[in-house]
Amino acid sequence: MTISVGLAIKLIKDPIHGYISLDEDEVGVLDTYPVQRLRRIIQLPFVYLVYPGARHTRFDHSLGCMYLAGEFAERLGFDEHRRKVLRLAGLLHDLGHTPYSHLLEPLLEEAGTTHEEMTIKILENDGELREAIERCGVSVDEVIDVLRGKGAESAIISGPMDADKLDFLMRDSYFTGASYGLLDAKRIIWRSRVIGGRLALSLKAIGAVEEMALARYQSFMNIYFHHAVRAAQTIFLRAVRMLEDLDFSSMSVQEYLSYDDYVLWCMMKRDERTRWAVERIERRNLPKVAYEFKFGEKSFPRELTRRKGIEEAEEELARLAGVPENHLWIDTPYVPPLPYMDQEQVQFYDEVDGEVRVVAYRSPLLDFTSKIYGMVRVYTEREYLEKVRRVAESYFTNR
Question: Residues 6 or more apart from 354 whose CB is under 8 A from it?
């Protein structure tokens, strides 16, 4: 629901943050094609197969980031211009996502780029968007500088305790109905300040910081990495790879922006090479887990960090188990570490007798979430489960 107020302000009703206000010029940015495209890119691909309410989009999330970035700016005492730059950076930070968000990120990475770089490319080359940003009294370069990490305020958009993470954890919790993402974002924001050109958090917010770090870990392990969700994502990604002529990285900005979830889904449903994956997901006919083990940073099977290594392992396991190669999948999701002691990331401060000083702080919970955790799963069809389980158990135990 959007409500006009007066001449220059619009309110957008958001289920997470309440009313989000935008001035007339910001609405102009919101209404550009690159931003509206985000309405057609789901935030959590195929999570709705397990959590039916998880139908929210990158557009919803981007509005939330815009709001929280503005809250950070207000708390830190930024002037109106810097506040607007930050709000626009929050709104625009996800423009470069492929259809189906992070699910197809490997296609960009294997071509030597990322959705962050695609965002910059869109900002630099889309005329409609550039004009809308400049009508806000902000230069596109200022927004790009924030997104590229130049300046203390960049940590508000991309850092260990940023507007991005705070919003997606709360938003994903709300729409899935899971309780893992419950956290006190306001306390983190209101206990933030810039010290020595870097973003710092008060020791009085440690409880909220630990809560956020744990919420992130639990959301990855229980929502994003749910075995049925990853089964659907794994077969979908394999099918997309069969579209050998689909190269997002080499597209012009306008061609890239023409792709969203609906376009790709219909394309795959029409194509005889990929129709099988769409039909399986439509019927929720998903592969089953034959074998799984969890790992920490030291026990991670390094050969599975590369696509070629995964494909070789899939081929070997299928051969050993005597099952068709196209009916065995290996998935290796992991929780990215959440660094909190790095010099480029957040620092902590204490305030004693009116004196503010940066302090070192060690937390067992933050130490835990600063490491890599993940799992290896081997999927196959129901009729092959026992054969694949035996072979996979022997295969990975010997490694």
Answer: none
Fold of 2-286: Hypothetical protein af1432 (1.10.3210)
Per-residue pLDDT of the chain (399 residues; tens, 9 = 90+): 554 444 468 999 999 999 999 999 999 999 999 999 999 999 999 999 999 999 999 999 999 999 999 999 999 999 999 999 999 999 999 999 999 999 999 999 999 999 999 999 999 999 999 999 999 999 999 999 999 998 778 989 988 889 999 999 999 999 999 988 789 999 999 999 988 878 889 999 999 999 999 999 999 999 999 999 999 999 999 999 999 999 999 999 999 999 999 999 999 999 999 999 999 999 999 999 999 998 876 677 777 878 899 999 999 999 999 999 899 999 999 888 876 545 455 689 998 888 888 888 888 888 888 888 889 999 999 999 999 999 999 998 877
Let me know: does 57 contact 41? Beta carbons within 8 Å.
yes
Report yes or no on whether pTM surpasses 0.85: yes
Give how far Cα 162 sits from Cα of 44, 338, 365, Å: 19, 11, 18
Q: Give the tokens for residue 117.
A: 């770089």
Q: Counting every residue, how long is the chain?
A: 399
In the chain, what are the domain boundaries?
2-286
